[in-house]
Fold Tryptophan synthase subunit beta like protein.
Amino acid sequence: MMMFVKRDTTGSICAASLEKTPDINEPISGSSPELAKFIGVEQQHPLPELDPLRESDLAMSRVLEDLIDLLIDKKLIQFTELPAMAQQKLLARQSLRTQCRLDLLGDNDADDEQIPMI
């Protein structure tokens, strides 16, 4: 999967998008470690004793994503009310989850089969 990024003056990623825009136009692989770090999915924690905390953080981030989706579905907040960076990160994570589900399906004929989101 190809994504697009914008970099700040130091060369660090400061925005990511699934679609190329005038401002966000540098192509990058969706599996790039640099993109994963920007989105908040680190490759490996430097201190193994903190792995349970890291796993808890990953689970909590999914809880927060689901909570945001619920608030939007119930029309308690609008997606556009979130800060631009939060919108971009949520869209990027949603895209990555969708891509993972598509990769799990592969080329089989189970188009109607529902795959639960992880």
Remarks:
- The chain is about 45% helix and 15% strand.
- The first helix runs from residue 33 to 39.
- Residues 2-41+50-105 form one domain.
- The two ends are 19 Å apart (CA to CA).
